[in-house]
Amino acid sequence: MRIFIKKSERIGLAVMERENIPEIYAMINDPDVNRFLRNPSSIWYLSGEYEWYDNLCRDANRNRVFPVINLETDQLLGLIGLHNIDFKNGFATVGYMYGKTFWGNGFATEALKLLMDYSFNVLNLRKLIASVFDSNIASKKVLENNGFNIIGKYTKHSYAPDAGYQDEILFEFMNTNYHYPDS
User: Fold this and answer.
1) Tens digit of each residue's pLDDT (9 = 90 or more) over 73-94
2) Do the bridges between strand 76-86 and strand 127-133 make them parallel or antiparallel, or are there none, so unpaired?
3) Are the C-beta atoms of 68 and 78 separated by less than 8 Å?
4) β 91-98/127-133 pair status
5) What is the pLDDT of residue 183?
6) CA–CA separation, 22 and 173 (whole Å)
7) Range 4-174 has CATH code 3.40.630.30
8) On the CB side of 180, how many CA atoms lie within 13 Å of its CA?
């Protein structure tokens, strides 16, 4: 039985379970998927993915990663998460990846909207940040469609196979409904 933290009509953000790891392992080792990740030339081992899951469980206050599930088919579409959550300063870094057979269906945009709702209305964060390679047009569109603004870039900052060193575009979203405590 899956436990969901947020749902829309088509998808849900589920609590990560150990049995999700083989699907994640296959997804992250797809060269088309991992070419835009932080370490695109890495080889991911199944044992390492189980270790990542164990660390995720131990460090849930700092990182929260959710499988994105198609509610009609119960299929894992990808992952979306909050990383380096800073409750004192009220922000986190957003990251996501999806299996390439699910690209172009609006699932990433929809999942980010759910994650933003969770971030602001459950965790009471005030800001989300993200960065993407400049050549990752689809990922930039996901962020822009959810109201993220470009705030800068790191020039020729990260290496991507078959693309060379890429500018890394920096995004942020400020929760305008956040009420700062009285000073």
Assistant:
1) 999 999 999 999 999 999 999 9
2) unpaired
3) yes
4) parallel
5) 52
6) 33
7) yes
8) 6
